[in-house]
Amino acid sequence: MNLKKHWFSITVVSIILIIFLLISFVKTNEDTDKYEDYELKVENQHYLSKGVS
């Protein structure tokens, strides 16, 4: 394959592949934030305690 003739298609495919990899990386790391999990638990406890009293 001659790179001078196919540089545009190689560039487009590379960019699409990089975007796909970034999206998949973000999706896999979406639920790993421990601080957010802690905040959600605390907020849920506050909500429940307000409902009881």
TrEMBL record:
Keywords recorded for this protein, A-Z: Membrane, Transmembrane, Transmembrane helix
Taxonomic superkingdom: Bacteria
Keyword Transmembrane on entry: yes
Transmembrane segments: 6-26
Descriptive protein name: Uncharacterized protein
